[in-house]
Design a protein that fits this description.
By secondary structure, the protein is α/β, with parallel strands linked by helices. 29% of the residues lie in helices and 16% in strands. The protein has an 8-stranded parallel barrel, surrounded by 5 helices. The protein has a 5-stranded antiparallel β-sheet with strand order 9-10-11-16-13, with helices on one face. A 3-stranded antiparallel β-sheet has the order 12-15-14, with no helix packed on it. The protein is globular and about 80 Å long.
Amino acid sequence: MFKLNKIHFTLLLSICSFGLVAQERKIQPTWESLAQNYQVPEWFLDGKIGVWMHWGIPSSIKGDRPHDGSHYGRWVYGTEDYIPKVPSEAVRKAVTKLKAWHIENYGPLEYFGYEDLIPQFKGENFDAEAIVKFVKECGARFIMPVATHHDNFDMYDSSFPYNSVKMGPKRDVLQEWKNAAYNNGLKFGVSTHLYWSPRFFNGARKYQKPNTPEWKLFNMDYDPVRFASQDSWNKHWYQRCWDVIEKYNPDMFNNDSPYPDLKTGKGIGLKLFTDYLNKDLKENNGKQTTVLSFKDAKKNKAAFTYNMERGMSGEIQEHPWMWATDISGTWFYRKGASNRILPSVLIGNAIDAISKNGVVMINIAQKGDGTIPENQIKILSDFGTFVKTNQEGIYRTRPWKIFGEGSLKIETRRGGENLKEFSEKDIRFTQKGNYLFVFVLAQPTQDITIESLKKGGLLKEAILNITLLGSTEKIKWQHNKQALSIQLPKEAMPNPHAICFKLYLQ
């Protein structure tokens, strides 16, 4: 029989103690504790590319409707929700035009409101498995469907009566997304946009009658201006969010709106965020496996993953962040909407973000029947072709000493993402092991000169060899104290938009 001596006993006690400490690790509901304990999991840093899905009631609105800012349910009722601010003249004109269109196509709002659009949202051709397989082929390593948008409609089996199981598609859409993600080896995230829905539907209030089902959809129990200070709303928000977390256990939780703060909301937002992470820690022996993201630019970026929606970074960020963009032109599907970003710019922006410690999240907007429009399929396919050729320089890489060089200047801010074409002078770097990857963000027409890689400069290692990803051509190059010069390849480029050289370092 094996007997424990003093050394064995001490070792066993240490192992047990370590396990106990790991299991007991808990983040306190303070920003300081969150900043000290939040750790971005490797799967997120390695995966680099995700796809966001905006799909819901607006996706099925018939006809070629006017611009609605992806907020049909808000704009169609007027601009009352802008209190206390005054909407711009452009918004007022757009709202007036949209409201007139709705009345012409559906009738007066007192007879046909936003709730009456739900029956035409059927999702009859929705195939989560097929879509997830497609986006995986296009480079995605995680997905993030919208669970609830500002219109207060849940796309899952919710305790709230307005949900996709009881109405519309009559399917647990979120569960189908999760199943498809895991079937294809992808991580599964959710995005909630719930918080300011009482304000979102302020203009609809005058059309509502007491004791009707619609009373709940339009948040009639909450003040449209002062809801942030109402305990009843903040508790309701927490419960709806926790419902998603508890039922679907997402790998990523994105809060795409404000949240109850410490001053008016008694810190319920912070409680939700830390409860989500603590649930993960408890279930994974003290190791964080989930991602928490939102948009608060004023908070310490060590405490969460910053969602820089429609924005970019001018430099390498200390903490991982997310560049979220849209290829539909309107977030939710709208017939006639056009994408603002050219495929070449989408690719350039994505590599720019990755070179600066960012992760890419590309939104697609499905039609009401659940299918992806052809123009979005084409854009995502082009992006995927580039990723497939250059995946070695994308997945599992990390930023280098500098992000790169070039003439196109990128500002650090959310909103106003780059829409300009990159040039062959715009270079970006990523690294992995003994390899440095050099992306040229436009097809070169002459020899490539990279001054930041000059001999004796930032690059301390010797270059043993250089290859071009996606090509078997032998690359000729020179390395001196002025620059690294790579001779223009003679064969056709592997991609019409951008290319990547792999530097083998000693």
